[in-house]
Amino acid sequence: MDRINRYFLSHFFSMFGSLFATLFFIMSIVFFIQIARVTSVIEITFLELGKLYLFMLPQILLFTIPISFFIALGLMLFKLSRENETIVLFTLGYSPKKIARFFFVLATLTSLLLLANALVFLPISGQLNKNFIDYKRTNASLTLKAAEFGQRFSDWLVFIEGKHEKDGGDEYEHVVMYATGDATTNERLLLAEQGRITNVQGELVLSLDAGRGYEFSPARIHELVFNEMFLQTYGRGDLSEVVSLVEYWAEAKTNKRRAERISLDILIALFPMATVLFALSFGIVTYRYQKKGIYGGIFLVLFVYFALIMLLNKALPLLSIPLIFGLFLLFSWLYFQRKILRRY
């Protein structure tokens, strides 16, 4: 590697590091919110929270690395162009083709690593994450808080006026439960003096004592008086088997959702290769005359690439991989040739 390539790398990794840290932090918050939704159903310790985060780490990296690579490369070259360093390099005989060749190799290596992540680590971590949540649900005990709105038990919204500990468990006082209606069921309301939750072979059972139930239909209201009522969730008693990678991806032939997933992951992994020439075209400018356009160009490429994934992925799951990747590779080369190679 010559001195100029090392110079480019030092500036690129400096820009990439700051962008990656920012995007990684934002994506981590998004996935922590997803984990928080799980904790509304099951109780987990701090160490188990870290385990769930590690299971989601391959997915976070799959999104943050390609986008950081593309934006960092464009902004790094734009910064060098603003300081007239790229013009000096071209004047000294270092052609844009050499820059394109060097960064295309770097983008290819990045995409290969992302493909390994998408095809190997993502399926394994996804299956482990699903089994971990199923296991916790099987051994879960749901705790309701007094005088707090928005709590759920299965399809029911739950409100309790108070609670106290009895026989090693929580007993709830003055329980109010409401279930919204839909096309097949009516609105329902339950009122009970007392209630308690127990785990019976992986299924949470809510026992209600001394209460009334109401069902609201368009024509009438049905009332039910009960001394004791049991409501339960239907959990999974068995954990799914962690299948081999070959079996996992072979299912894409018959399972459309699996095909859509593999198509999405591969296209995201190939994003650095597909867009590296766009980044070079946006970043290499004559700053005096081309100050604007880089941010709009970066946003447009990101929007079009991921919009095409969303549009074609459902209609042509596996075929969308060569279509989108080939289309972007072709147009990026034509754009690079017209904007850069003809000028410098």
From TrEMBL:
Instruction: Report membrane topology.
Output: Multi-pass membrane protein
Q: Which residues cross the membrane?
A: 12-33, 53-78, 99-122, 266-287, 294-312, 318-336
Q: InterPro entries per the record? A: LptG/LptF_permease
Query: Which UniProt keywords are listed?
Result: Cell membrane, Membrane, Transmembrane, Transmembrane helix
Protein name in the entry:
LptF/LptG family permease
Compartments annotated for it: namely: Cell membrane
What is the first-listed, main subcellular location in coarse terms? membrane
Q: Which organism is it from?
A: Sulfurospirillum tamanense
Taken from the record, one Pfam family name reads: LptF_LptG
Q: Which domain of life is it from?
A: Bacteria
User: Membrane: is it a keyword of this entry?
Assistant: yes
